[in-house]
Design a protein that fits this description.
9 helices; 2 domains; four-stranded mixed beta sheet; eight-stranded mixed beta sheet; 42% helix; alpha/beta; single chain; Spore Coat Polysaccharide Biosynthesis Protein SpsA, Chain A
């Protein structure tokens, strides 16, 4: 198995250095591609001074899924891993990926916190519309190349939630993801091991979009959307009762939740009409070819 590791990054030079150091130590045979998009902290210069990065891809687009797709576009391995720039692979990570990919098309694993080894991203499974789903750790996943080709990569409409959408589409295509405790990555106590950027409004827009795109407006989908909105509204109302928030803030937050859920649902229906195949990805890798501004290829 030839493994390509794609590391999207944005203004995190110090954390990225630790990530690349760990890959050089524990996965020296892997092809490493860094997708930088676009940083203003000297990331490009730092990478060009290293000899353990095979490809550096500079983007104008700051979204995580565009970065993932740009890395997949130029990866040469028959298996591709995605690692968050704030995370460091462990000693057993590479062998766990090799073993997992040989028996499964997709494999993912936990994120641990140093120095205590506490699990901060554990296995999460669920069922939606009768489909059993193993959700992927967004900062630690690997898949066979043919899976990416089959699903056309990640949906670039989404600014967050792309890995969850990928998991839904895997289930729709009868591709099972496996969870391997040995495929672990670590992060410092203060590091963020999630998506590159998180936006409150996009939390709700993303949820509405990916559920409606993948499952249409069925009762279970509407129930999930209403349930989340009511739960978050209840939490905000408790903050008002404790004097930690104002009623006007609660009303404004509720209005934003409804607006973004409805916007996501509308766009999800449009996406479902645009691509009615099981891959459900009208905004995938094949939708554009202009992601990269500059590519440094040292292979």
């Amino acid at each position: 198995m030839e493994l390509s590791v794609v590391v999207p990054t944005l203004n995190a030079r110090d954390e990225l250095t630790g990530c690349l150091d760990a890959l050089a130590e524990h996965a020296p045979d892997a092809e490493v591609l860094v997708v930088n998009g676009p940083s203003a902290d000297g990331t490009t210069g730092m990478i060009r001074e290293r000899d353990d990065v095979d490809v550096l891809i500079e983007l104008a687009d700051r979204t995580i899924n565009a970065a993932r797709n740009a890395g997949i576009d130029r990866a040469r391995g028959d298996a591709i891993a995605l690692v968050n720039h704030t995370l460091s692979v462990t000693e057993q990570w590479f062998e766990a990926v090799r073993a997992g990919i040989q028996s499964n098309k997709v494999v993912t694993g936990p994120t641990l916190t140093l120095p205590d080894g506490r699990v901060v991203r554990d296995v999460e499974r669920g069922t939606v519309a009768g489909r059993a789903i193993t959700y992927l750790n967004a900062g630690n996943m690997a898949f066979q190349r043919e899976v990416s080709e089959r699903l056309d990569g990640f949906d670039e409409y989404l600014q967050i939630g792309g890995a969850r959408d990928f998991a839904h589409r895997l289930a729709a295509n009868s591709v099972e993801a496996s969870w391997d405790e040995q495929m672990s990555v670590t992060r410092g106590v203060d590091a963020d091991g999630g998506e590159l950027e998180v936006d409150r409004d996009w939390k709700y827009r993303s949820l509405g979009y990916r559920l409606v795109k993948n499952y249409s407006l069925r009762p279970t989908v509407l129930g999930r959307l209403v349930g989340l909105a009511l739960r978050d509204a209840g939490g905000e109302l408790k903050a008002v009762s404790r004097g930690e928030s104002r009623p006007s803030q609660w009303f404004g937050a509720g209005r934003d939740v409804v607006t973004n859920i409805l916007g996501g649902c509308k766009d999800g229906l449009a996406a479902r009409r645009q691509d009615d195949a099981p891959r459900r990805n009208p905004n995938g890798r094949s939708s554009r070819t202009d992601r990269a501004v500059t590519v440094y290829d040292w292979r």
